[in-house]
Design brief:
alpha+beta, Aminopeptidase, nine-stranded mixed beta sheet, 11 helices, globular
């Protein structure tokens, strides 16, 4: 099918009713004239009048998620961390010590923000991706033309700010992201599977947080979707809706029906597995299997 995906923040107008009507009319025309078969609109607030108006022009499915951000106390890492309990802060310091002990103190965080940094970051990040959960799913930052184009553009516009955690001179975790205004937007994050027990992703996140506190940054935005680490580190959140709009034609409606059925089954399965603890057991088993595969390689 031909899809139009409206990225986060893509439905911009002056906030007036006429502005909303213009957006709705344009998307409706694209769908009903056959120019596209479906439209995916990301990150609409449930209370936004635009959401209810869009659902009236096509067959729709909705998916809701929490959007998490962290508020920083600019210039003070200690004040920023006061959001967490003393016990949790102590645990985070222990993770850092354990990782340093494993690599004889040779642990360092490197930031990348210039055009000249792009290729070096891609090489390091792709090395991590190849040994990560993301890599196992065919995702993650890769040293290819697409990622080079994306990250180079951000660097040229002065927005690139990505991090790599090095141990013994080798990369074991990375965070790709951009700095826009006073907000740091997280994108892809990954760590090397076989070092998972040493919490490299957590160590990177905390050290990155400390670095961001030294910059003119007030917020960290964790992007789409809910996740445990976002709930742990997030200080503020709100609900957002991902809206799927389908044209009234055979193929789009078949996809619509399949998605509706899949959503119902997914909600039931998620609820059941969480209730009986199956989800965590399956996840741990899958991760352990991935580590064994990585060790054989």
């Amino acid at each position: 099918m031909r899809w139009l995906e409206v990225v986060y923040g893509g439905l911009l107008s002056d906030g007036s009713e006429s502005g909303r009507r213009a957006i709705v009319s344009h998307l409706e025309q694209l769908i009903h004239t056959g120019e596209v078969d479906a439209v995916l609109v990301n990150g609409v607030r449930p209370e936004d009048q635009l959401l209810s108006q869009l659902t009236e022009v096509a067959w729709c499915c909705e998916r809701s998620d929490r959007h998490w951000v962290t508020r920083l106390e600019m210039g003070s890492f200690d004040r920023t961390m006061e959001f967490h309990s003393g016990k949790h802060r102590k645990k985070l310091r222990r993770y850092d010590r354990v990782l340093q002990q494993a690599f004889a103190g040779d642990v360092s965080l490197h930031s990348f923000s210039e055009v000249d940094d792009v290729q070096r970051f891609l090489v390091l990040a792709s090395e991590v991706s190849a040994q990560s959960y993301l890599g196992a799913m065919g995702a993650g930052v890769a040293d290819n033309a697409l990622w080079r184009s994306i990250i180079t553009l951000e660097a040229q516009r002065g927005r690139m700010l990505s991090y790599v955690l090095l141990t013994g001179g080798r990369p074991i975790a990375y965070q790709n992201g951009v700095l826009y205004g006073d907000t740091y937007y997280c994108d892809e994050r990954a760590y090397v599977l076989k070092y998972g027990g040493l919490r490299p992703g957590t160590v990177l996140a905390v050290r990155m947080l400390k670095d961001l506190c030294s910059r003119p940054v007030h917020w960290i935005d964790y992007g789409f979707g809910d996740a445990e680490y976002k709930r742990i580190y997030g200080t503020n959140s709100w609900e957002e809706t991902r809206l799927y709009m389908y044209a009234p034609r055979v193929r789009p409606l078949l996809v619509f029906a399949t998605q509706r059925a899949g959503s119902v089954l997914s909600r039931w399965a998620t609820s059941a597995t969480k209730t009986f603890g199956v989800f965590e057991r399956v996840r741990r088993t899958w991760r352990a299997k991935m580590v064994r595969v990585d060790d054989r390689d």
